[in-house]
Amino acid sequence: MIGGLQLKVFKKVLALIMITFLITVTLIDTSQNIVYASPNANSKQPIKIAIFISTFDDSYLSLVKQNLEDIQKENENKVEFTFFNAHGNQGIQNESVEKALNEDFDLFVVVLVSVAIKTVEGIFNKINEKNIPLIIYLDPTTEIVNLAKSYNRTIIIGTNIEQSGVLEGKIIVDAWNANKNNIDKNNDNKLQYIMLHGETYNPTAIARTKYSIQTINAAGIKTEQLSLVYCNWDRECARISTESLLLKYGNKIEAIISNNDAMAIGSLEALQKQGYYKGDKSNYIPIVGIDAIPEARELIKNGFMTGTVLQDPRAAAEAIYTIGMNMISGKYPLDSTNYKFDYTGLIVRLPYFEYNQ
To answer: Could you tell me the pTM of the whole model?
Structure first.
């Protein structure tokens, strides 16, 4: 029989064992709630990453794709990217994701065609059910952020979209201050402009439009919007639209502000067709864009575009690669990087820079 003293010791040991067990269970449960990714059990090489792009025709996204391909070459046998073109159709993108779910990919990166929850929630749920880490690469809506928060292995890489509009507006402010006599053709101390807008409900396009004009107004420059055209980032649409607007407004147009470089270049082509930029400063209209694609940089260098805002495709590709590899390995997504999450704890926002060299 166990004596009184032995019984007391036995009870204390048993209690200590139970407390240790409960603490261990609690820690395991808590860690499951805060882990971003579990280590990929498959240690095969190379790591396979599926990149779903809204359209290869987008000038900027094509540069991100190119830089990812360069990263693959620089990391031979370590990573393999497979690119899927949605051709601007969310249905096609959803089908591509569904097919890829049955293949041996370690990470999905999705550049959404649509930010409408009803069109993407189903496919995101399927990715989550497969427990595949996911990077959403876009400037998200609140609804997309809330949806992503419900998934354990999802983060968003976006940009500081307000900053892009602010910098674009600043380029116009600087041009006005330096060359107001030539820009203000009717001498009314007001800037009459055309706005070339991306997709109608796209948060990036909306922010670029809003903050570019806010910045111009905050600098004390009055503005008048002659027309806002939705061209869905498309160069040809911008060219055709600008040709039509030139017929309607003629010399009343004092600036063209574009949500991206492709549309800015399209508008420039229309202006050149009508005799602008032939050396006569009276036939000059400031044009600004965003992305700093190589063609836009060359046009700025030669004096045909006023400026653009740099969204670095190499920086975007490196963020996707570095963060993605961390997620696949089960590390904290931002481990050994200089990236930081914004207030959501979910989004990494890459900066923009003014480009008017």
So the answer is: 0.82
